[in-house]
Amino acid sequence: MLKSSNPIIKQATGLPPLDRLELVDRILESLDIPDETLQKFWVDEAVHRWNSYKAGEIKSVSAAEVFEKYKP
To answer: What is the CA radius of gyration of the chain?
Structure first.
């Protein structure tokens, strides 16, 4: 773990707030590495659900119903 005395941390925390926010965004983007296996799984799942819906095997639910069910 980086210590607060680390030059990178000192430099980053010394930036203006908007620059720090942009830095955080860029760091997070660098961590978002696409996983082709996971992407293929979700594409296959979406196609399966769509085909099941079109075949009448599953029904749709309105957004209002979902929000009502899960509201705090």
So the answer is: 22
